[in-house]
C-alpha cells in the first residue's frame, strides 16, 4: 500500500467499492462510485501499488502533460473518504470510504487482504460492493437492483437475498468471501444492464445503484446531473431502437415479460418505499432533482434530449440479441438474471 496522506479518523465508516472490468457492465458500478467521489469532493488518502496487482499489457498506463511536463498515470485502486449526513440531513454525520479501481490481474487474495487491512484500521462497520451485469431487461423499465450477502443475519436484518450462486466469479465475489472469513459484514448490490445496449455509459443503472445505496445506508446522495443524464440516455435509446423494427419488437417482448413478473411487486411495502424516496427528495437540502430509477427530475423539461453539440455522447445503437457480444455474469444470477439465457451465456464464455 502506498499511503498518499495520513489515515483520517472516521465516524461510523462504511466502505463502498466498485471495480472496472468483468463486474461492471456498462461501467455502471464504477461510475456510481465516481459520482459519489466527485459530488462529495472525496480526499484520496491511499492507493495500492500497481506493480503488485496489474498486468500493464492488459491495463496500460497513460501519459499526460501537466504544465508541459510529461507524467504517467498507473492503473491502480485508490481509497478516498467523504463525510455525509443521514437521509433527513439532521442526524449525526458519518463517513464513507470509497474504493475505486480496476479488477486486478493477479494476486487477488493479497489484494483483498490489503483492502481489508485498511478496513480494519479505519474501523469500517460494513463493506458494500457495487456491481452490474448484462441481463434480459428492457431499457424502458426501472433498473432491477438486487442486494446479496453471505451473512444470513444481515440478510434478514436488511431485507437482502442470501447468496446461493455457484460458478465463475470476479473480484466482487472474492472480496465478499474474504469479508465473510474476516468477520466484516458485506453486501453486494447488482444492477442489471440491458444486453442489447451494453456499451458505457449507462447513467440509468448508476442512478438505480445509488438509489438502492441510499435506502441501504439511510443517507441522501446529491445527484447533480445524473438524473438528467439517465433521462437523456433512455430517450436516446428509445429513438435508436425505434429505427430498428427487430430491436423494437424484441424490446416489446422484454417489456411484456417484465411487466408480468413485476405484478406481485405492486405491494403496499413497495409503494411505501417509493413514497419515502419521494419525500426524501423533497428535502431542499437534498438538491433540486427528484430521483427515480427512470431518471426523471422534478421541475425540468421532460423533452430534454442529450445534445450532441454539448460534448455528451449519445447512447450507442442497440444490437439484436443474436448479434450481441457475450459477456460473463457474476453472482447476481441470484438476482435479476436467472433465466436459462444466463446459463447459456456462462457456458459460452
Structure explained in plain terms:
By secondary structure, the protein is α/β, with parallel strands linked by helices. The protein is 36% helix and 19% strand. The longest helix has 18 residues. The two termini are 34 Å apart.
List the main descriptive attributes of the protein structure presented here.
349 residues, 10 helices, alpha/beta, globular, disordered C terminus, 36% helix, two-stranded antiparallel sheet
Helices and strands in order:
Elements: E1 2-3, E2 14-20, H1 28-39, E3 43-47, H2 50-53, E4 62-66, E5 69-73, E6 78-84, E7 94-102, H3 108-122, E8 126-135, E9 145-149, H4 152-158, E10 161-162, H5 171-182, E11 186-194, H6 203-217, H7 226-242, H8 245-262, H9 268-282, H10 340-348
Parallel strand pairs: 2-7, 2-8, 8-11, 9-10
Antiparallel strand pairs: 1-3, 3-6, 4-5, 6-7, 9-11
Helix pairs in contact: 1-6, 3-5, 6-7
Amino acid at each position: 500500500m502506498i499511503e498518499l496522506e495520513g489515515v483520517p479518523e472516521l465516524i461510523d465508516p462504511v466502505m463502498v467499492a466498485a471495480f472496472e472490468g468483468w463486474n461492471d457492465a456498462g461501467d455502471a458500478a464504477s461510475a456510481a462510485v465516481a459520482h459519489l467521489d466527485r459530488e462529495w469532493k472525496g480526499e484520496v488518502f491511499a492507493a495500492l501499488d500497481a506493480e503488485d496487482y496489474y498486468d500493464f499489457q492488459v491495463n496500460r498506463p497513460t501519459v499526460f502533460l501537466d504544465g508541459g511536463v510529461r507524467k504517467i498515470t498507473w492503473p491502480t485502486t485508490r481509497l478516498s473518504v467523504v463525510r455525509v449526513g443521514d437521509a433527513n440531513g439532521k442526524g449525526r454525520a458519518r463517513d464513507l470510504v470509497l474504493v475505486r479501481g480496476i479488477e486486478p490481474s493477479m494476486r487477488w487474495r493479497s489484494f483483498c487482504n490489503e483492502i481489508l487491512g485498511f478496513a480494519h484500521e479505519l474501523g469500517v462497520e460494513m463493506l458494500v460492493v457495487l456491481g452490474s451485469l448484462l441481463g434480459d431487461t428492457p431499457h424502458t423499465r426501472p433498473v432491477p437492483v438486487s442486494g446479496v450477502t453471505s451473512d444470513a443475519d444481515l440478510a434478514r436484518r436488511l431485507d437482502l437475498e442470501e447468496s446461493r450462486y455457484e460458478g465463475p466469479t470476479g473480484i466482487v465475489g472474492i472480496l465478499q468471501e474474504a469479508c465473510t472469513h474476516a468477520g466484516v459484514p458485506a453486501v453486494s448490490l447488482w444492477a442489471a444492464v440491458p444486453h442489447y445496449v451494453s456499451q458505457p455509459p449507462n447513467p440509468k443503472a448508476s442512478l438505480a445503484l445509488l438509489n438502492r445505496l441510499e435506502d441501504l445506508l439511510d443517507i441522501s446522495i446529491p445527484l447533480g446531473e445524473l438524473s438528467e443524464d439517465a433521462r437523456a440516455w433512455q430517450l436516446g435509446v428509445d429513438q435508436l431502437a425505434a429505427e430498428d423494427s427487430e430491436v423494437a419488437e424484441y424490446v416489446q417482448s422484454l417489456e411484456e415479460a417484465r411487466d408480468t413478473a413485476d405484478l406481485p411487486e405492486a405491494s403496499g411495502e413497495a409503494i411505501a418505499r417509493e413514497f419515502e424516496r419521494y419525500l426524501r427528495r423533497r428535502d431542499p437540502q437534498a438538491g433540486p432533482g427528484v430521483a427515480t430509477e427512470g431518471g426523471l427530475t422534478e421541475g425540468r423539461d421532460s423533452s430534454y434530449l442529450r445534445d450532441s453539440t454539448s460534448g455528451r455522447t449519445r447512447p450507442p445503437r442497440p444490437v439484436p440479441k443474436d448479434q450481441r457480444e457475450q459477456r460473463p455474469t457474476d453472482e447476481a444470477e441470484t438476482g435479476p438474471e436467472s433465466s436459462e439465457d444466463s446459463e447459456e451465456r456462462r457456458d459460452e464464455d
